[in-house]
Amino acid sequence: MSGGHGHAGGAHRWRLRLAFILVAGYFVVELVAGLMSGSLALLSDAGHMAADVVALGAALVATRIATRPDNTGRRTFGSYRAEVFASGLAVLLMLGVSVYIAVEAIGRIGETAEISSGPMLIVGAVGLVVNVIALLLLRGGASDSLNVKGAYLEVVADTVGSVGVIIAGVMVSATGNAWWDTGIALAIAVFVAVRAVMLGREVLTVLGQHAPAEMAPDEVEQALAGVPGVSDVHDLHVWTLTSGMNVATAHLMTDQDADPHAVLDNARLVMRTKFGVEHATLQVEPDTHTGCKEVTW
């Protein structure tokens, strides 16, 4: 299989690269400010940003691997699943960050903490500006590539975190109560954990070769059975190779007077136009052929 030169993510690498530079630079600033101010909200958002830096970096690497031509001849499906493994790494990082934040926040309950609200407000405002710029960069490719869309959603979450830091800074400054910082840190931790679980479910669905959420196997079977000349459909399998790339295989039994070429062309057209499957391997067999039996798996 050739390298994915037409892979949508490859066309938007420059967006991912610029967003990575912006987010990585801000992460360093936020981490230093969080340590200096003692703000757990800043540190929690910095931890979230660290996970996003890794996620963006992994998306960049995965996009490079996915668009790289296969010179071994053994990767018959290419290397598109590199982005799935990158997403799995991001899930583990996000869960680790959320657990760390929660433990730190719970440990602060009942303790007094000196928090400088000034750095929280300044860094939170800078982070909001950085995230808005990154959002504008990634939004242009989010509709074309699910890999870019995932990065875009990561930055959306970063924006929420920056808003949370600003709110914490305002409330600590107005009330002098550090509980606002701890409470918002916990809220950020929960938000990150929920996103990690949702992304993790998608990763496991792909790696488990489940049918895509938007494609019901029964509907695919009915659509193929409705192709003129098809008498039976069996050994149907549908799964996701990587984000936005679904694959299908099936055996189509045909009537004796059916034109196998027309059946194949019409079946491929159904898979492409109705289900968005560009890569469908369809085996056309006359119903007089008795050598094909549906496998148990």
UniProtKB/TrEMBL annotation:
Recorded topology in the membrane: Multi-pass membrane protein
GO cellular component, one term: plasma membrane
GO molecular function: zinc ion transmembrane transporter activity
UniProt record similarity statement: Belongs to the cation diffusion facilitator (CDF) transporter (TC 2.A.4) family. SLC30A subfamily.
Domain Cation efflux protein cytoplasmic as annotated: residue spans: 218-286
Positions of transmembrane segments: 18-40, 46-63, 84-103, 115-138, 150-172, 178-198
Entries under Pfam families matching the protein: Cation_efflux (PF01545), ZT_dimer (PF16916)
Classification via InterPro entries: Cation_efflux, Cation_efflux_CTD, Cation_efflux_CTD_sf, Cation_efflux_TM, Cation_efflux_TMD_sf, CDF/SLC30A
Record's protein name: Cobalt-zinc-cadmium resistance protein czcD
Keyword terms: Ion transport, Membrane, Transmembrane, Transmembrane helix, Transport
Organism: Nostocoides jenkinsii Ben 74
Domain Cation efflux protein transmembrane: 17-207
Location of the protein in the cell: Membrane
UniProt-listed NCBIfam families: CDF
